[in-house]
Design a protein that fits this description.
Strand content: 15-25%
Helix content: 25-40%
Number of domains: 1
Order of helices and strands: EHEEHHEHEEEHHHEHEEE
Strand order of the largest sheet: 4-1-10-11
CATH architecture: Alpha-Beta Complex
Largest sheet: 4 strands, antiparallel
Structural class: alpha+beta
Oligomer: single chain
Shape: globular
Number of helices: 8
Length: 233
């Protein structure tokens, strides 16, 4: 595919890793392969898995570093990739301890503690690649504002096209859509035992990825860029 609607810079677990396999199976969408996969069956779910993951499924298993954007006029994907490679080369690899958390009405994998290296990586992606982002359309701005933004979030929206960046950034690998509190607790109880062995050791953040949204509305992993330099994949 080459008719990409939007691009985004994400963290995604290494292809073939146990965490990547779990994420693809849980969501039912393997962004690295660009195809649907058999859904992972977990006991104790209060709703069908398909209903629980309907919202995050199209994005693939990831954590956002630079939110999805349309490519600015006059810019090419090759130029974007060169810029991402340069940004990644300027950031050292690190590791995160992750846990299941609820950053909102949804469940996600979140860091156990703050990470200066993660904050620096996100800042580099947001600010260092912004020349490639087309300005947000009026309808998108209106939609974002329905969330009830504070002053800092409004400033982020106007400057960077997204409210929850920089000082409002919260790393999360989304596992579910919005869930009612009682339902969320039961889904969490089903997910935590399955994820515990995968999160026993810190998760390496050794590269960043460019994901791209195809005409079908689903995101696919287009390319990986190693942190600290090296050979891109």
């Amino acid at each position: 595919m080459g008719n990409w609607r939007r691009h985004a810079i994400y963290f995604a677990p290494p292809e073939g890793s146990a965490l990547a396999r779990f994420g693809a199976g849980w969501l039912g969408w393997d962004a690295a392969r660009g195809e649907a996969v058999a859904g992972l069956a977990l006991p104790g779910l209060p709703l069908p898995r398909e209903a629980i993951v309907e919202t995050p499924r199209r994005y693939g298993f990831h954590a956002t570093l630079k939110p999805p954007f349309r490519l600015a006029e006059g810019r090419s994907v090759a130029e974007l990739d060169a810029a991402v490679e340069a940004v990644a080369a300027g950031c050292a690899p690190f590791a995160l301890r992750l846990e299941v958390g609820a950053p909102g009405a949804f469940l996600a994998l979140v860091p156990e503690a703050a990470s200066p290296a993660l904050a620096a990586l996100e800042r580099a992606c947001v600010t260092g690649l912004d020349a490639f982002r087309a300005s947000a359309e009026a309808a998108e701005l209106r939609r974002r504002r329905t969330a009830g933004l504070d002053a800092a979030e409004e400033e982020n929206l106007r400057r960077w096209g997204y409210p929850w960046v920089l000082g409002r950034f919260r790393f999360h690998m989304t596992l579910t859509g919005a869930l009612a509190p009682g339902v969320q607790a039961r889904v969490r109880a089903a997910l935590e035992p399955a994820l515990a062995p995968l999160l026993a050791a810190p998760v390496a953040v050794a590269d960043v990825c460019r994901f791209a949204e195809a005409e079908d509305g689903r995101f696919r992993l287009a390319r990986r860029f190693p942190l600290g330099g090296g050979r891109a994949g």
